[in-house]
Amino acid sequence: MHRISDEQRRIRLGRRHLLAPSVRADSPVAVADAVVALHATDASTVFLSACARLGEPSVAAVERSLYKDVALVRLLSMRRTLFAVSAELAPYVDASTARAIAVKERRTLIDHLTDDVNGLDERWLAEAEEAALAALATRGSATGSQLSADVPALRTKITVFPGKKYETVQGVASRVIRVLAADGRIRRDRPRGSWTSSQFHWTASEPWPALPAAEARAELARHWLLSYGPATEADLKWWTGWTLGDVRKALAAVGAEEVGLDEGTGYVAPGDMAPEPTVEPWAALLPALDPSAMGWGDRGFHLSADHRTALFDRSGNVGPTVWWNGQIIGGWAQRTDGNIVWRLLTDPGGEAAATIEAEASRLSGWVGEARITPRFRTPLERELTA
């Protein structure tokens, strides 16, 4: 069996994830396609991940891709997480993953509505959705609060998990908006504040064309292997949230080839076994939830187990990380005065320290007056900002 070393995997990561300066991209869409999908749970991550990989970092370019050209779109998809993907790849993400999640989201909401204590039904939900869409058509773009003001049904309160110790009363507006977005009937428009804000306006959208789920999974697996391969079945299962059966069928459908890894058997896209050309030494300051840290279940080839406690929260979310030549060697944060600070958890040498300093200066330069606080805070990030 052909073997691919951990060192070769790190070289692939630097080149294919556009992290070395010589391979940086010229558009946010090219960045998203290079890593398949940008994590979008935290609004700032999309911008930080994209600009770290752009030859010319530009908030305006990312905003244009998201809101004017709609060349990047947000989908609730892999692992029930919000991602930003290119409009070209979006139908495959939708059919392979997002469709099933949307069905579950709607079913869960209907179960809550139809509980005896709430006394609502599917017809009520359908009418509330149509009223919300009509209000949105009139406004063109609206916040959830504006839609609630226009549609009385959206001001309804429901009791969730009645009789349980975690019983709670919720407004229904955010739940209705969530299922409309999951179905592709509305999408997030510009935020109320700056690019770091997660309080979005909403605007009308059209559902993605229906594709066979198995074919879509195979196509998504092919893209993922080209970006993250070699990788294991377990890695793909973790990243997608698919069943092991669906993972194996997708790998077989795409013709994935087995290779030997330091930790066992992995897979690459067909014909993708040749050594990757080396790139120049590189450093990167990547944000919380960046794809290069969250792309595999097993990160042993680029992350020391000793560093995990400092850099991840208890739910497995990675914080801001410092990279050197394909390995995570520390973490960074932005303090309230705007300063970018970092701590290295291993000594990479003088060349690395100087390159990291330059990359921190580059980050500080384009971030400007914006202030970044990750949604999922990690021990080292908290320590650096204390």
UniProtKB/TrEMBL annotation:
Pfam families: AlkZ-like. InterPro entries: AlkZ-like. This is Winged helix DNA-binding domain-containing protein. It comes from Streptomyces lunaelactis.
